[in-house]
Specification:
The complex is a heterodimer of chains A (888) and B (115). Chain A is built from 28 helices and 22 strands. Chain A is an alpha+beta fold and 888 residues long. In chain A, α6 crosses α15. In chain A, 53% of the residues lie in helices and 15% in strands. The two termini of chain A are 57 Å apart. In chain A, strands 1, 2, 3, 4, 5, 6, 7, 8, 10 and 11 form a 10-stranded mixed beta sheet that branches. With 115 residues, chain B is an alpha+beta fold. Chain B is 64% helix and 14% strand. Chain B contains 4 helices and 3 strands. Chain B has a 3-stranded antiparallel beta sheet with strand order 1-3-2. In chain B, α1 crosses α3 and α1 packs across α4. Chain B is elongated and about 60 Å long. The N and C termini of chain B lie far apart (44 Å). The chains are: A alpha+beta (888), B alpha+beta (115).
Chain lengths: 888, 115
């Protein structure tokens, strides 16, 4: 077919360019000319007509051929079917509305879930060639998974200078700055980055320039600012490049402004100011060693752009070799350290992948149940259309056309359901985003875009096939001979009853899988919430502030914290006040390697543990038990001998049953000393779940901040008045120094809640989906039972007439329902046993084959089956035997 | 329509096109019956078109822009549709004619190979 012919035929489908009457006239003219010729040849009238007719063919058939040529047959059939389907659906509004809503719920939920997955997992990072961005993590080869992967500056510098598989390799760490504006000090999130970060990301500043390589040396106080800061703090001044900004009481020169949409590091809140690692190369005291020289201090993240010929695997191989060489060269700090290279996107969202896909699978199950319900509904309706089908077949419609028309009805229904579903998804996205853990990347940008709409259309079509195919074939098959004689209610036969029963078993099984999954997650979450964190998070307020190095040299910082803490303790309503870094469950971890005195381990085996700086009384403030020895006191000052407190896990892991008190360790931590000192263990405290509630505490050691301050501290205040105390703390701080900004003010309970945000999200949604699934299954079972009872009225009438007690009839129906449910349960339990293995890694304290959960689900399903079948069963007992026998 | 029947119709349609175009080219604007009569005459009764073949074929040619149809009146005052070949139709006819002649001469040469 040429395109021109196609276009004419398409046009003719919608606009009758040559009407049937025209066609008929032309054909009749031809026929009459033929008759005329026969007459000319000498045939008599009647015989002329007949001979002519034989010669030229019948008008009716020619008309058919003409019509087929004029338009597009399949398109005309389709539009006619759609029109008929719409009329049929309009005539049964109850059924149509129920079906549409059921579908809308199932499809809408899937659409919303896919929208989330699209925004979080599928959307590439907003940088050029984002697939070539890879993250390099520095890991302790002896540790199990879960290590943070932060690297140290010297390691990074060595990688950068030797790695060939990376075009660019950069490092960064998130931090914050105190900006003073018109007497008011406020906190701005930011980052310390290497000079080549923008080259790695492939982004150029909107104004000015990027950092230069020589600006990584100490003393280069340059900064890049974000577009919002440029507008809010500098009124979008065009001469911004070269102007100064005061960060942490030091002057930085602005060299450029980033474009408005630039967002790196990808976290919330977004960084607004970027300075170079000259910051970490700085020291206040010339005798100190800068952080950029501490190979044992792991606190920076590394991102790189793979070169054109490299892959994640080849980069991993090369860096492993480099890391091994470094381990040999520096056994003290870098022994046993390896690397792990992964794509940057993977690092960002890798651990949300599994929960999101589990949720998508769950919501897919809900849709399946909805489709099965709809299939049953259509089967019931189809049985009542036997007469219509018989008529169609008698008039010559082929089986394929009938099935096609019935499928079109399903498609129209699915289209309606998809439309409503999309609207539902649109509305529920806002709700989903609010419930979801705030730190997941991309969640603030979930939209219903083209991809999501396409996905929705596809599942709408697939659903139409799932719920429409079997009923279409069944309905089309209804035997005309029997149906034409009957009153319109075709005899179903045992086959159809079995089919409907099988569908109920299927949806029950799927429902079981959903319920078991939800049940396991609920129990797991409950266990998680009841896990003892090792301290008492209630009544604790935390906050922090930055002391600018320019006005606070090292000793002054220690003195400042001392003073502020004693001020806080004097406040009314404050029971205890302490300071620490990092804060438990805040997502921050410091890890510093250490040496052990004594011959238990060879010197080449460097050990690493979590590290924290605390004030005297910190453990008391958090209600962490002191198991052995003593807490720090004011006497443990900078002039005093170096001490350290370890947690129970540390003591057991590195000292076994021996008493660690009095033993010494040498953390790779030095501040004012010329070389790292040995520190004596003076106390053992209880384990605190620092990383997350579900992860057991690792070995940890603590130093008094007076003997080692390497980062700003968090204030921790125990008080009954968690809301009111904040203002008092702010005032106390301002009284000491009005240029300090208090920020990250949160209660400890908020940190706990955030740490369980992901399991809570997953559990809540799965429970919701399971509830949907159960409701739909119950409705399906009720429908099948009700229909079955209606069909068997005559049978019940006879039984009752023959003397059966109502109780027996009731039992009969209910037993039928229980048989279906039990079959579904068995299938479902087997399926669950396989499916819950997917959940095994997210479960906490609960086995994936937990018998209590399975038993509970079985009991719930049986109860639901009893309730759903009770009403139809009652109706069966109320059948009037005489009326039933008469109605046939 | 089964595949074989469709294939046969395709072949027939292909030759039908060229026959109709040639007839219109020779006769000028005529109605459908005249085309059928002429073809029957020229082929000595071998080509015998019925309405169900001829008219869909004519409609197809019209949809492709190779002929143009117009309502008119026959010699015995009947309303009929007259078809005329278009410029595009003439070009198509010339091309197909060349194809046929080339095929025919190849076949002729093949089937009459000297021993």
């Amino acid at each position: 077919m040429t395109p021109r012919e196609w276009a004419s035929r398409l046009w003719a489908t919608f606009r009758r360019t040559r009407t049937d009457r025209d066609l008929e006239e032309e054909l009749r003219a031809h026929l009459e000319l033929a008759v005329d010729e026969e007459r000319r040849r000498g045939n008599a009238e009647g015989s002329a007509a007949r001979t002519a007719g034989l010669r030229v063919g019948a008008v009716a058939q020619a008309m058919d051929a003409q019509r087929d040529q004029r338009g597009l047959r399949w398109l005309e059939d389709l539009s006619r079917d759609v029109g008929f389907a719409c009329r049929t659906l309009r005539k049964a509004p109850g059924f149509t509305v129920v079906a549409m809503l059921t579908l809308a719920l199932g499809i809408g939920a899937n659409s919303a879930m896919f929208g989330v997955i699209n925004a979080v997992l599928l959307r590439p990072l907003p940088f050029p060639s984002p697939a070539r961005l890879a993250a390099v993590a520095s890991i302790d080869l002896r540790a199990t998974a879960g290590a943070s992967g932060s690297a140290s500056w010297p390691d990074f510098f060595d990688w950068r200078s030797t790695a060939r598989t990376f075009e660019h390799l950069s490092a960064y760490r998130e931090t914050g700055f105190t900006l003073v504006d018109g007497g008011r000090a406020f906190h701005v999130p930011g980052a310390v980055v290497t000079s080549d970060l923008l080259s790695t990301l492939g982004v150029k500043p909107a104004l000015g320039r990027a950092f230069r390589a020589d600006e990584e040396r100490a003393g280069a106080d340059v900064a890049l600012i974000s577009d919002p800061i440029w507008r809010s703090q500098f009124a979008a001044a065009p001469d911004i490049v070269g102007r100064a900004v005061t960060l942490n009481s030091r002057r930085f020169t602005i060299v450029g402004v980033m474009p408005p949409a630039f967002h790196f590091p990808v976290s919330v809140p977004a960084a607004q100011v970027w300075i170079t690692n000259a910051e970490d190369a700085r020291v206040d005291n010339p005798a100190d060693s800068p952080m950029t020289a501490e190979r044992g201090a792991h606190f920076i993240k590394v991102i790189g752009r793979l070169s054109a010929t490299a892959s994640v695997a080849s980069a991993q191989a090369e860096l492993e070799v480099i890391a091994a060489a470094l381990a040999r060269a520096h056994p003290d700090e870098s022994g046993n350290r390896g690397v792990r290279v992964a794509s940057e996107l993977d690092r960002l969202v890798g651990d949300t992948r599994q929960p999101l896909f589990v949720l998508l699978a769950a919501v897919g199950c809900v849709l399946l149940i909805a489709c099965v319900n709809l299939a049953n509904l259509l089967l019931a309706r189809g049985a009542g259309r036997g007469r219509e089908m018989a008529l169609r077949r008698a008039l010559g419609a082929s089986g394929r056309r009938i099935v096609g028309q019935l499928l079109t009805e399903s498609l129209v229904l699915a289209a309606l359901g998809t439309g409503c579903g999309l609207a539902l998804a649109y509305g529920s996205i806002a709700l989903l985003v609010r419930l979801a853990p705030a730190t997941v990347r991309g969640l603030d940008q979930v939209t219903i875009d083209g991809v999501v709409v396409a996905f929705t259309a596809v599942i709408g079509g697939v659903s139409a096939l799932i719920f429409g195919l079997i009923p279409a074939f069944q309905t089309a098959r209804t035997d005309p001979a029997i149906s034409a004689a009957a009153t319109g209610r075709a005899t179903q036969g045992r086959g159809q009853r079995r089919l409907r029963g099988a569908l109920v078993v299927a949806e029950t099984a799927i429902g079981v899988v959903l319920l078991v999954g939800a049940g396991l997650l609920l129990r797991s979450f409950d266990r998680l919430l009841h896990t003892a964190p090792g301290f008492e998070p209630e009544h604790l307020v935390t906050a922090t502030f930055r002391l600018p190095d320019s006005r606070y040299p090292y000793q002054k910082q220690i003195a400042f914290y001392d003073d502020v803490l004693s001020d806080l303790r004097a406040l009314p309503g404050v029971e205890e006040a302490a300071a620490t870094a990092p804060l438990p469950l805040s997502g921050s971890r410091y890890s510093i390697s250490f040496q052990q005195l004594g011959a238990q381990r060879p010197q080449s085996e460097r050990l690493s543990a979590d590290f924290g700086m605390v004030s005297p009384g910190y453990f008391r403030t958090l209600h962490v038990p002191l198991l052995r020895g003593r807490d720090f006191s004011e006497a443990d000052s900078d002039a005093a001998p170096r001490v350290v407190i370890v947690n129970d896990r540390f003591a057991r892991q590195y000292f076994g049953d021996a008493d660690p008190i009095g033993q010494r360790i040498k953390p790779g931590l030095s501040t004012t000393e010329t070389e790292t000192p040995w520190r004596e263990i003076v106390g053992v405290v209880g384990d605190v779940r620092h990383r997350s509630l579900s992860e057991e505490s690792g070995p940890a050691y603590f130093v008094p901040y007076a003997q080692g301050l390497i980062s700003p501290l968090y204030l921790v205040v125990r008080t009954d008045n968690t809301t009111g105390v904040v203002e008092d703390v702010r005032r106390t701080l301002a009284r000491r120094d009005p240029e300090l900004a208090l920020y990250n003010v949160k209660t400890m309970e908020e940190y706990v809640a955030t740490s369980v945000a992901t399991p809570r999200f997953q559990t809540l949604l799965l429970a919701l989906f399971a509830a949907f699934g159960l409701t739909l299954t119950a409705i399906g079972l009720y429908g099948v039972m009700a229909y079955g009872v209606a069909q068997r009225r005559r049978e019940f009438g006879i039984r009752l007439a023959l003397g059966a007690r109502p109780g027996e009839v009731l039992g009969l129906v209910i037993r039928g329902a229980l048989a279906l449910t039990a079959t579904g349960l068995i299938v479902g339990v087997v399926a669950s046993a396989l499916a819950t293995r997917m959940l095994a890694s997210t479960l906490y304290g609960v086995d994936s084959l937990d018998p209590a959960t399975f038993a509970g689900v079985a009991a719930m399903l049986i109860a639901v089956a009893l309730v759903a079948s009770y009403v139809p069963a009652r109706r069966a007992t109320r059948v009037d035997p005489i009326a039933a026998l008469r109605s046939e | 329509m089964s595949n074989r029947a469709a294939a046969r119709t395709d072949i027939l349609q292909g030759t039908l096109d060229i026959m109709v175009l040639q007839t219109l080219n020779t006769l000028g604007p005529v109605h459908g019956y005249a085309i059928a009569a002429r073809l029957e005459q020229v082929s000595n009764g071998a080509i015998h078109l019925n309405m169900g073949t001829l008219y869909p074929g004519l409609m197809r040619l019209e949809q492709r822009g190779l002929v143009r149809g117009k309502w008119g009146v026959t010699e015995n005052n009947r309303k009929a549709r007259f078809y005329a070949i278009t410029a595009a139709g003439r070009r198509q006819l010339a091309a197909e004619k060349a194809d046929w002649e080339r095929t025919a001469s190849i076949m002729h040469a093949l089937l009459n190979e000297p021993q």
